[in-house]
Amino acid sequence: MRTNARNGGQLLVECLLALGARHSFGVPGESYLAVLDALHDTAGRLDFTLCRQEGGAAFMAAAYGKLTARPGICWVTRGPGATNASIGAHTAMQDSAPMILFVGQVGTDMKGREAFQELDYRAVFGTMVKWAVEIDQVARIPEIVARAWKTAVTGRPGPVVVALPEDMLTDVTEVAPLTGPGTYPEPEPAAQAVAQLRDVLASAKRPLIVYGGCNWSEAGRAALQHFAEGSDIPVVSVFRYQDRFDNHSPVFCGEAGVGMVPNVRRLLTEADVILAINNRFGENSTDGYTVFDLPQPAQRLIHVHGSDLELGKVYQPELGIQAGPNAFALALNAAGPVQGDWGAWRIEGRAGYETGFDLPDLPSPVDMGKVVTYLRSVLPEDAIITNGAGNFAIWSGRFLKYGAGMRLLAPQSGAMGYGIPAAIAAKVVYPDRRVVCFAGDGDFQMTCQELAAAAQAGAQPIILLLNNGIYGTIRAHQERNYPERVSGTTMVNPDFAALARAYGFHGERVERTEDFAAAFERACASQTGAVLDLVISPEALTPRVTLSEMRAAGLRMRDKV
User: Can you tell me the distance from the alpha carbon of 59 to that of 182, in angstroms, rounded to the nearest whole number?
Assistant: First the structure.
């Protein structure tokens, strides 16, 4: 090979290194062997975490993007590999998390014939991601990869899919790789817009700040908190982004999420001015699009987002400002606090948040209310918490307090199985931090094979497995709508502790609340991660309503029909 010549696989990997990629996740495939060969020489510079299923690999990449605000890199093969990985791409899109999914493709000479495992990736992923593209010419690798990276991190961050024809990856070129990433400063708010929004806030009687997104810097977060506290304005996060604002702050009043608590719903509906920063207005954060009138809310709405496509997409704001969250927060804080007579409004909101931690005793061998109370007292200030989807996720989402250094990785898409891969990705990035995954028994079994990936990578988290033998969320709806007609929601489970030990983890079954603290200490002391199988009664399906009470309510509704 000529001195400056390299094949497509080598060129692609060199471009990713230049852009700043340091970790990647994937499942090998013959369609991108040239990339795997190039990765052979990048250990310690661009590492490859070998996963066991493409869905797990894509979840890891999506979680990496959410954790670091840099694109999570995922490698999968064509056809089935791509469709398996689609769950991670969808999750990254709904989370607004940067990610690049590289997918093998049939050779350019076979396209359009429905060759083995052939898919049209633009058609498959076109509505699921920010951009789907195929590189047909080796010389265009630097151009397209640079654009993919930029697309993933700017505006509303999100996933990009790049298809890689097999013959393109083996073609040889003398085209030079990228020499570094482009710099794309966040759009800054116009001074006139900042002045206008301050006038609107000053006229308020019940102002509220709502925020979201993963692309916050430490400076941006600090600026927003300083402004909110100085102005004494209550703050609410959108679904599963409560970790981006210090929950111990006196202005933090909770999360607008699934099963919206009355205190948060009251804040949203009774506010007369809402400053929404860096969030999209999703179903869960608007209680099914019921807290605001469509398309023009009764509340005076100021919406700030880095992408003009999010402004006015659902709700028409009185003032829409295209600005990045950090640039906006810094500009807002620099102008000083806004004063108003709303202190009692903020105090009431905070009191409602604090009251939400008061729980009754739960009818369960292991009482999760007491478990999370204990965890709040022992988790490190920089702990990383992950979860997938299910009723169990309420414990990590609503009953932990996320300080300035803690992180929560949880899917806005409600994707079961996300928690374990997300925890592994977190341990890959931060091997010395405490990473704790909350998983239901159904959720756990979606991606538990990735425990093998964790063991191989030396990235083993602690997993709290809430084992109640049912698909809890579906059973809850079943009991409300079809009481006493259980169908397809009861599981027969394996010995999870033994399964954990088979994967090289510490595995332990916890059958009593009073045994949890000692078991968690053993889990923390384990050098190989841990799975604690917590025995939970199906009756304790939610923190305040039992399964029997749900069934009784369903029967009453049925009898009225």
Answer: 26
| CA distances, 474 to each of 247, 290, 364 (Å) | 30, 23, 19
The H-or-E segment that residue 355 falls in is helix 343-355
pTM: 0.95
What is the rounded distance in angstroms from the CA atom of residue 112 to the CA atom of residue 115?
Answer: 7
Residue 198 backbone dihedrals phi, psi, to 5 degrees? -65, -35
C-alpha span between 316 and 302 (Å, rounded): 9
Which residues face 417 on adjacent strands? none
Rounded to the nearest integer, the mean pLDDT of the chain is 95
pLDDT of residue 307: 96
d(CA 132, CA 302): 32
User: In this structure, which amino acid lies at residue 103?
Assistant: V
Structural tokens at position 132 = 């789907």
Q: Which of 403, 277, 381 is nearest to 332 (CA)?
A: 277
Length of the chain: 561
**Whether pLDDT at 561 is above 80:** no
Give the distance from CA 233 to its chain's centroid: 26
Token pair for residue 27? 């499942």
What is the bridge-based pairing of β-strands 506-510 and 530-535? parallel
- Return the pLDDT at 557: 83
DSSP secondary structure letter of residue 545: -
* 489-526 pLDDT per residue, tens: 999 999 999 999 999 999 999 999 999 999 999 999 99
- Helical packing angle, 472-481 and 547-560, nearest 10°: 30
Measured from the Cβ of residue 240, the count of other Cβ atoms closer than 10 Å reads 27
Side-chain half-sphere exposure of 524, counting CA atoms within 13 A = 13
Residues 146-155: what's their mean pLDDT?
A: 98
Beta-strand pair 506-510/435-440: unpaired
Helices 368-378 & 516-525, crossing angle to 10 degrees? 40
What gap in Å lies between CA 516 and CA 39, rounded to an integer?
43
Closest CA to 512 of 480, 535, 543, 479: 535
Cβ neighbours, 10 Å, residue 453: 25
pLDDT of residue 1: 44
Percent share of the chain, pLDDT over 70: 99
Is the distance from CB of 263 to CB of 253 less than 8 angstroms?
yes
Q: Are 285 and 279 in contact (CB under 8 A)?
A: yes
Cα 143 → chain centroid:
29
**Within a 10 A sphere around the Cβ of 542, how many other Cβ atoms?**
17
Distance CA 42, CA 39 (A): 5
Count the neighbouring beta carbons within 10 Å of the beta carbon of residue 512.
11
Q: Encoding tokens for residue 69?
A: 């605000």
What integer pLDDT is reported at residue 471 of this predicted model?
92
The DSSP annotation for 56-107 comes to HHHHHHHHHHHHHSSPEEEEE-STHHHHHHHHHHHHHHHHT--EEEEEEE--
Per-residue pLDDT tens digits for 67-99: 999 999 999 999 999 999 999 999 999 999 999
Rounded Cα distance between 230 and 223, Å, is: 10
- Which pair of structure tokens corresponds to residue 432? 């010395």
